[in-house]
Amino acid sequence: MIGTLSLLRLSFRLATWARPRIEAWSLERNWNRVEGERQLKSRNYADAEKHLSLAVLEAEEHGNPVPKRIHLRLQLAEAQRRHAMADPENPDKVRLAQAEKTVRSAIELAAKVNHTMAYVQCLDALADIFGDQNNYSAVEKVTQEAIRIETSLPHPDPLRTARRVHRLGVARHHTGQAAMAVSDVEKAVAIHEQTYGEDHVETARLLTDLGCIHRAQGNHVEAQKILRRALRIHENSCGYDSPETIRDLHNLAGSLEDSGDVDGAAEQYERALTLKARTIGGSLEEMGEMQYGLAGLYIGWQNYSRARELLIEAIGTFKRKRGTRLATALEMLGYVEEWSGRYPDAVKELASAGKVWESCGPEHTRDLLQNMEHRVSLLEQLRRKSEAKYLRERVEELRPTIPEPAPSEPELLDPDVGKSEAGDSALVDELKIAELKIAELKINERKIAELKRDDAKVADAEETAPLKTI
User: Fold this and answer.
1) What is the pLDDT of residue 468?
2) Rounded Cα gap, residues 236 and 228, in angstroms
3) Over the stretch 24-62, which tens digit does the pLDDT of each residue have?
4) Under a CB-based contact definition with an 8 Å cutoff, are residues 183 and 173 in contact?
5) pLDDT for the residue 226
6) In this predicted model, what pLDDT tens digit does every residue of 386-438 receive, in sequence order?
7) How do residues 65-99 score in pLDDT, each as one tens digit?
8) Does domain 159-279 have CATH number 1.25.40.10?
9) Is 1.25.40.10 the CATH classification of the domain at 31-149?
C-alpha cells in the first residue's frame, strides 16, 4: 500500500515537472502556426503570410494529419489574398495567383482523402480569389459546385448555403444574367430572414446588395423600397453615422437621381454629408472628397450657390496638402463663378488654381496651359486686353515645354475583360461619377469658350479691315 502511494507521488511529481517542458516544446514546435494565426487576426497580412508559409512546410515535414495541412494552406491563401488586396484599386496580381496556387494544392489534398467539407471550404476560398480577380464566370462555376456538394450532405448548413447563393447572385449580376441574379440574392435574403430575423444587420447587408442590383437594372421603384428598408435596419442596429448607413444613403440617393428625383437625391446626399461630419475621428480628406463630389452633382443640377458653398469648404481642407486636388477644386470654383456670371471672381479663382498647377511640377504643364488659355478667353471678354496679351505670351513660351506622352504598350486581350461592365454601375462610387460629370462639363465649356474666342477674332478682323470703295 505504501509502495503504491509512493509510486503515485512520484508519477505526480514527474508529471508536474514535465508539463511546462512539454508545453514549451509544443509551443516551439508550432510557433510559426500560432504566430501566423495571430498576425492574420491582427490584419498584419505580410507577417502572417511569412509565418504561415513556414508553418505549411513544417506540417509537411512532421507529417501532420491531412485536415490540419489543408487548414494551414487555406489560412496561408487568405493571408496572401488579403495582402494582395491591400490596395483594392491596384491589386497585386502575382500574389493573387500565388493564393490561387495555394488553394489548389489544398484541393488536391482534400480530393486524395475524400474530405468533403474541406473540399467545399477550398471551393469557397477559390471563389473569393476569383472575385478579387474579377473573374466572375469562374466564381459562378466554383460556387455552383460548392452549392451542389453542400445540398447533397445529410445535414446541409442553411447559412453556408445562403452565403454561396448570395455570391452566385452577385457573380451573375456581373456577368449580365439579370433575372437569375435577382432570384439568387432574393433566396439568400429569405434564408437570412428565417435564420437571423427580418431586422437583423446580416439581413440588411444582403438587402443593400439586392437594392444595388435592382438599381443597376433600372428597377428604381423596387431598388428604393429595398434600400430604404436596409437603411432603416442599419440606422437602428449600427447607428445613424455608421459606414453601413452612409453607404445605404449614397445608393438610395443615386437611385433617386437616376430616376429623375433630383430633390430627393439632394436630400439624401446632404444627409450623408451631415452624418459624415458627425463621425468622431473621421478623415478630413474623406469629408473634403464628399463635399467636392456633392458640389459636382449640384453643378449638374445647376444649383451653383450650394455648389459654391461646398467647394469653399472642400478647398479649405485641400489646402493642407495642396497638390492636384486643390488645383481642380479651385478650377471648379472658377467655373461655378463663370457660370454664375461673376467673371472677375472666376478669373481670380482660376489664377489661384494656376499657381497650384505651377507648384505641381512639369508633368502638369498641360493642365496649367489649359487653365491659362481659359483665363485668356475670360480676360478678353472683360476687355482686359493687356492681361490677356501677357498670358497669351506665357502660353506660347510654355507650350514647347509640354512633355511628350510615353508610348503605350499594346495590351493583351483578356477573354474575361468586359464581362462585368454591365452591372458595375450600382457599385461605382458616387464621387467618381461626379468627377466624370465635371470633366464633361469642363470640356463643353472650353469648347464654347474657344468658339467665342474665334468669333471675337473674326469680329475684330472685320472692324480693322479697310472698307472697299465702290
Assistant:
1) 34
2) 12
3) 434 445 788 888 888 888 889 899 889 888 988 988 888
4) no
5) 92
6) 888 888 888 888 887 776 655 544 443 333 333 333 333 433 344 444 444 44
7) 888 888 999 999 999 999 999 888 888 899 999 99
8) yes
9) yes
Entry pTM: 0.61
Segment 329-349 mean pLDDT: 88
**321, exposed or middle or buried, with CB in 10 Å at 0-12, 13-18, 19+?**
exposed
User: Do the beta carbons of residue 164 and residue 143 sit within 8 Å?
Assistant: yes
Q: What residues have CB less than 8 Å from 292, skipping those under 6 apart? A: 310, 311, 314, 318, 325, 329, 332, 431, 434
Burial of 441 (0-12, 13-18, 19+ CB in 10 A): middle
Contact 55, 36 (CB under 8 A): yes
Q: 209, 188 in Cβ contact below 8 A?
A: no
3-class SS letters over the chain: CHHHHHHHHHHHHHHHHHHHHHHHHHHHHCHHHHHHHHHHHCCCHHHHHHHHHHHHHHHHHHCCCHHHHHHHHHHHHHHHHHHHCCCCCCCCHHHHHHHHHHHHHHHHHHHHHCCHHHHHHHHHHHHHHHHHCCCHHHHHHHHHHHHHHHHCCCCCCHHHHHHHHHHHHHHHHHCCCHHHHHHHHHHHHHHHHHHCCCCCHHHHHHHHHHHHHHHHCCCHHHHHHHHHHHHHHHHHHHCCCCHHHHHHHHHHHHHHHHCCCHHHHHHHHHHHHHHHHHCCCCCHHHHHHHHHHHHHHHHHCCCHHHHHHHHHHHHHHHCCCCHHHHHHHHHHHHHHHHHCCCHHHHHHHHHHHHHHHHHCCHHHHHHHHHHHHHHHHHHHHCCCHHHHHHHHHHHHHHHHHCCCCCCCCCCCCCCCCCCCHHHHHHHCCHHHHHHHHHHHHHHHHHHHHHHHHHHHHHHHHHHHCCCCCC
CATH number of 283-400+428-470: 1.25.40.10
Q: What's the CA gap between 137 and 155, in Å, rounded?
A: 28
Assigned C-alpha cell, 90: 491596384
Sequence ranges of the domains in the chain? 31-149, 159-279, 283-400+428-470
Q: What are phi and psi of 211, to 5 degrees?
A: -65, -40
